Each structure stands twice: as structure tokens, then as C-alpha cells.
Amino acid sequence: MASTNDLKNGMVLKLDNGQLWSVVEFQHVKPGKGPAFVRTKLKHVLSGKVVDKTFNAGVKVETANVDKRGMQFSYKDGEDFVFMDMDTYDQIQISRTVLGDNANYLLEGFEATVAMYEGAPLYVELPTSVELVIEYTEPGVQGDRSTGGTKPARLETGHEIGVPLFIVTGEKIKVDTRTGDYLGRVNS
What we know:
The protein is mostly beta strands. The chain contains one helix and 16 strands. The chain has one helix at about 95-100, and strands at about 1-5, 10-15, 20-30, 35-45, 50-55, 60-65, 65-75, 80-85, 90-95, 110-115, 120-125, 130-135, 150-155, 160-165, 170-175, 180-185. The protein has a six-stranded antiparallel β-sheet with strand order 1-6-2-3-4-5, with no helix packed on it. The protein has a five-stranded antiparallel β-sheet with strand order 9-8-7-10-11. The radius of gyration is 21 Å and the shape is globular. The chain starts with a strand and ends with a strand. GO terms for molecular function: translation elongation factor activity. Belongs to the elongation factor P family. It is found in: Cytoplasm. Keywords: Cytoplasm, Elongation factor, Protein biosynthesis.
């Protein structure tokens, strides 16, 4: 248990019949009249839904002990993804539903942070950007410029994103894992 005065960003709370909510933002408010309160923005750990919730100051809330570990993606086993704990070398399987869109940016050997609660994986955090090679894209046409449209390109993971017209097959690019947007070329 913790007090609402002890809230921190990233803290995981157990609210509403044991559902897990992560604190995205919080603000202590002391109005001129009336008691102080804490305004929070909470993200549901499993669904990703974000809600605003207000607590009275000093109220006790139940915290969940979420264990975040650095793990390395080893291989794909059917619909599951196998990760290895970097400290203990234990392997765990994580389903595609837990990974969500992060599965589109995983290559063998990629490191990620896996959040575990009571032995079960809750979510996987990738770095905000990853470097991937373009496996295939249509060739550019003479006159294509850096400004202008985009074309589809298949990454080495098999996922398709939009890239500028001047990008060619075999180039290494940087991709935002949160939005799936092209960020730029990588000079190797």
C-alpha cells in the first residue's frame, strides 16, 4: 500500500477489482478552498486505455509489484515469441497479443524490457527507435526528391511502412517503434 502523496510516474497501481494501471502523469492540487487532491492520468497495463482519475490527497492505494527485466528476443515459436533473461538465461514465451505492434520490429538478438507480474508477462518495452534494413521497395523514379510522397517498403522483419521515394532496397533506416514512422537513414 502507498499513499496518493507517494505516486510517481511509472508506478503500477491495483485498482477496480485488481486491474493494473500505470501512472503516466500526476499532479498534486491544493485549491484555495477545500481539501487537496491528486489528479492523475492512468494507463491500463493490458489494454493500453488511458483514463483521468482524481484521488483525495493522502488516500491509500494498493500498488502492484511489477518486475521489469532486460531480456533478449531469441526466436519465434509458432505464434509465441521466446525471450531470454539476460541475467539468469531463463527463457519465457510471450504471446503476440502481449507484444502487440512491438512484434513488427523484433529481430533475433534485440534487447527489450519485459514487465512481469506474478510470473506472467504484462507488456514489452522496446527502445523508442530501431534500425532495420529495407528488404524490398519499388525503385525510385528519376526526379524523386526528399520532399514529397511516400511509398511502401517491407522491412527485414516483414512489416510494411511508408518511406520517402528516394529510399532503395537494402538501405538501413531508423523506425519509431511507438508510431511505426520512418525517422531517417542510418549511415553505416
